[in-house]
Amino acid sequence: PTANIGVVGLAVMGSNLARNLASREGNVVAVTNRTDAKVDRLIEDHPEAGFVPSYSIADFAASLTTPRTAIIMVKAGRATDAVIDELCEVFEPGDIIVDGGNALFTDTIRREAAVRAKGINFVGCGISGGEEGALRGPSLMPGGSAEAWQTLGPILESIAAVAQGEPCVTHVGTDGAGHFVKMVHNGIEYADMQLIAESYDLLRRVLGQTPEQAAETFAEWNRGDLESYLIEITAEVLRHVDADTGQPLVDVVLDAAGAKGTGSWTVQTALDLGVPVSGIAEAVFARSLSSQADVRAASRDLPGPASAPAVDDPAGFVEDVRLALYASKVLAYAQGFDEITAGAKTYGWQIDRGEVARIWRAGCIIRARFLDRITEAYRDQPELVTLLTAPVFVEVLEAAQQAWRRVVSVAVAAGVPVPGFSAALAHYDALRSERLPAALIQAQRDFFGAHTYRRTDREGTFHTLWSGDRSEIAAEA
Ligand code: 2AM
Fold it and tell me: Active site: which residues (predicted)?
């Protein structure tokens, strides 16, 4: 055996990850794939990598030094289970199987338990950054045991993206913690993209900016607090002209957004955990709505406002939109971190949220200057209840909240949908409220279903005899 790390599954992501591994000092990389041709192709195209090829799982296992460490890069779902089963046949106790696919964290929890029962380590590892990230340095979110991290950690540190001298990888937590955090990362990505899209829509529909002018606005924003990969590529996309028609590309792309499901997982999981991630949910729903061609066609002639309100100070409005975007983004990230907090509690993970923000600073789609502030906020206050009250974000919200309200008001008056901005603002105002109308909802529930309520002034659980004399009785908790 000569290889210290192996990759099973040599489609684009797997090949790129294998090449990344091979390019780092000290790694010798074993590779295999169900279809032999992909192995041959990789070896042929990249002789410099010094790969150790195998054409069976048994030979692959034999080519690895112990503890054997293999990263599975196959299609999430049944293929992953099939490859895990094959590896378990030939691996020995103490060896390490890593799933680098986009697995649902509950699958990872199930697989980890099954593989651990055989004495083999199983690590679900979220990998973000797409094909380019896999090749040049992704953000890596491994779960699994501390024992597996001992061996795997240095290997993953060698290939991860680097932010301010630190590799974008940490041992997130046990079993499915890594895939859970990767899922939330993707949910936040949906929210971030939706908020940028709403900003763009306002610039065009309220101010009448051309895509080129909007590109300038985003490029300008990218020089300040909002500096991020997504803002940067937004400017590039908006500037791009379609070769066929000479039109801005954004005007010829069909306005129906696709999704691969990880955003939905984030929201479904949040519903199960009872965590309001309305910013992420609105982003997922906005994509669904965009793809409802029949409902949109049927609704096109519904009445809207007669005229859009005139904006007397266009530059002021642009700055308002920037602040609304920033504030909404703070809310969306706070919601994502709330979900991580709740997930950690429910599944028994010790997740250092500052570390999570730290490893998202490079390599992944949501990389941004902003994540430095989240990292620092959690470093200063590791037990922070909500990101919103970190001094750095209080300052942002203070500076932005009036502008945020103006933007939502103008959008509503103009009939331009801003589900992300307005959901974030509603969340913010609900959290600020001393009293919520939840009191009325509890009383209604008690009325029709005897669901009982608690009181602000006394301990205990109570029920009003709504269909009797309407006196109050103590109820069983
Ligand atoms: P293939 O090249 O033989 O199709 C992405 O599709 C990767 O997952 C490919 O490397 C593919 O192998 C692999 N894959 C898909 N289903 C698989 C399975 N059931 N067993 C092993 N590998 C599989």
Answer: 182 (proton acceptor), 189 (proton donor)
